[in-house]
Amino acid sequence: MNSLQSAKKRIQETALKAYQEQLVAGTSGNVSEFDHEQGIMAITPSNMDYQIMQPEDVVLMKLDGTIVEGEHKPSSEWRMHAGVYAAREDVNAIIHTHSPFATSFAVLHEEIPEILVEMLPFLGGGIPLSQFGMPGTNELADNAIKVLTNRNSCLLMNHGVLVIGKNLSQAYVRAQYVEDAARIYHYARQVGKPCLLDESVLSTLRDRYGLKK
């Protein structure tokens, strides 16, 4: 269980950092890790202030909802996390944010296209939009999984952002890049019509980074 205790500390630290960097507000958003070998997910508790949350507050549970350790209720979005982990063996960490610039495009029902070269190596390309799913449901996970093919982030329609990674550090950097791309796209649209990367450039970058379209 030592690895899971370490995961709880990483989750608490990551959730606090997301709050401090305004990727979430109040008690919104959630962070998790999944140990595929043990079949146990560590996830932030429901409705707890990130400024007072401690590692011991993080909940350990199985993907079917069985609580293994913890005095609190798990995040209300635990089904979304569980669904992604069940579908993607390559995913070990998930961060769900409500970062304002990215979420504004989720409210507009717009994807964020390839406007920056950094989006290819860090995000796999543009940021797709998943169809709406009611909060706390399996539908939310199912809709996100559909658009995460060859991508590691997506916008959740009228909701927020979902980012996946092989570890929390990678997932967090991706969450930062999602918000950065959204911010730049927003500002560019205020002064003109953003110019997307040419397909020939995208093709070259995909080859360079071993990415699929």
Instruction: Give the rounded overall mean pLDDT.
Output: 96
H/I helix tally: 7
Instruction: Give helix and strand order, one letter per element, not per position.
Output: HEEEEHEHHEHEEHH
User: In percent, how helical is the residue content?
Assistant: 40-55%
Write down the Rg: 17 Å
Q: In one word, what is the shape?
A: globular
Category from helices, strands and their pairing = alpha+beta
Strand content: 15-25%
Quick one: biggest sheet? 8 strands, mixed
Q: How many runs of DSSP E, i.e. beta strands?
A: 8
Strand order of the largest sheet: 4-3-2-1-5-8-7-6
The end-to-end span amounts to 39 Å
Give the low-pLDDT segments.
Answer: none
Keywords for this entry:
15% strand; 8 strands; globular; 7 helices; alpha+beta; single chain; 213 residues
